[in-house]
């Protein structure tokens, strides 16, 4: 299914609705060009997980972990232009199998082999300066009906 967000707030709201349905253990791959809205969407996921405080792009630190509702954690990774994830591959391997963590990954190509078969892929495009499209699996249709 394809949704359209006309503002940043709308995009975050879509993320928040999705994350409100999360139980823990979800692994989400965010696909799209620079500026497509992946990090903004992650801020929305954080809202839906009741993360307190600001979610910052992990571009330089590669990973950030936030405490979320119900004893869950949000782990946010960004492997943009990383040649060799090194020891992070082992860390990620553990994190994606932790039932109390929701793992969100931007630019996951280099670690694609570590993603469980059950991971969710969400794609973003920027048809104009102020609009973004979000493509989600049809299994989430009811959440946005
Ligand atoms: N409708 C929209 N939804 C989300 N972001 C938007 C929208 N319109 C413009 N933007 C801008 O697009 C940029 C998205 O950046 P970001 O979320 O960091 O992208 P990415 O992580 O994919 O590189 C932000 O500067 C944001 O203000
Ligand atoms: Mg980003």
What labels would you give this structure?
145 residues; alpha/beta; Rossmann fold; seven-stranded mixed β-sheet; 3 helices; 7 strands; globular; binds adenosine-5'-diphosphate; binds magnesium ion
Topology:
Blueprint lengths: L1 E4 L2 H13 L6 E5 L6 H11 L14 E5 L5 E6 L9 H8 L5 E6 L13 E6 L6 E4 L10
Adenosine-5'-diphosphate (ADP) binds next to α1 and α2.
Note down, in words, how this protein is organized.
The protein is of the alpha/beta class and 145 residues long. The protein has one domain (2-138): P-loop containing nucleotide triphosphate hydrolases (Rossmann fold, 3-Layer(aba) Sandwich), CATH 3.40.50. Helices cover 22% and strands 25% of the residues. The protein has three helices and seven strands; from the N terminus they run E-H-E-H-E-E-H-E-E-E. It has helices at residues 8-20, 38-48, 88-95, and strands spanning 2-5, 27-31, 63-67, 73-78, 101-106, 120-125, 132-135. It has a seven-stranded mixed beta sheet with strand order 1-7-6-2-5-4-3. The longest helix is centred in the first third of the chain and has 13 residues, at 8-20. It is globular. The protein binds adenosine-5'-diphosphate and magnesium ion. Adenosine-5'-diphosphate binds at residues 5-8, 11, 32, 34-40, 57, 106, 130-132.
What fraction, in percent, of the residue positions are helical?
10-25%
Number of domains: 1
Q: Tell me the CATH superfamily.
A: P-loop containing nucleotide triphosphate hydrolases
Instruction: Give the biggest beta sheet.
Output: 7 strands, mixed
* Average predicted confidence as pLDDT: 96
Give the structural class.
alpha/beta
CATH architecture: 3-Layer(aba) Sandwich
- Total count of strands: 7
Helical region count?
A: 3
Bound molecules: adenosine-5'-diphosphate, magnesium ion
Distance from first to last alpha carbon: 11 Å
Beta-strand percent range: 15-25%
């Amino acid at each position: 299914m394809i949704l359209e967000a006309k503002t940043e707030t709308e995009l975050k709201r879509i993320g928040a609705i999705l994350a409100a349905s999360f139980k823990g253990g979800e692994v989400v791959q965010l696909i799209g060009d620079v500026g497509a809205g992946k990090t903004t969407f992650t801020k929305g996921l954080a809202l839906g997980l009741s993360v307190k405080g600001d979610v910052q792009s992990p571009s330089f630190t590669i990973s950030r972990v936030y405490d979320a509702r119900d004893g869950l954690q949000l782990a946010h990774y960004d492997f943009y232009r990383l040649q060799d994830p090194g020891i992070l591959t082992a860390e990620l391997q553990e994190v994606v199998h932790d039932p109390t963590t929701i793992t969100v990954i931007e630019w996951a190509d280099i670690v694609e082999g570590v993603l469980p078969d059950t991971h969710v892929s969400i794609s973003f495009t920027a048809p104009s300066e102020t609009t973004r499209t979000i493509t989600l699996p049809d299994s989430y249709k009811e959440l946005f009906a």
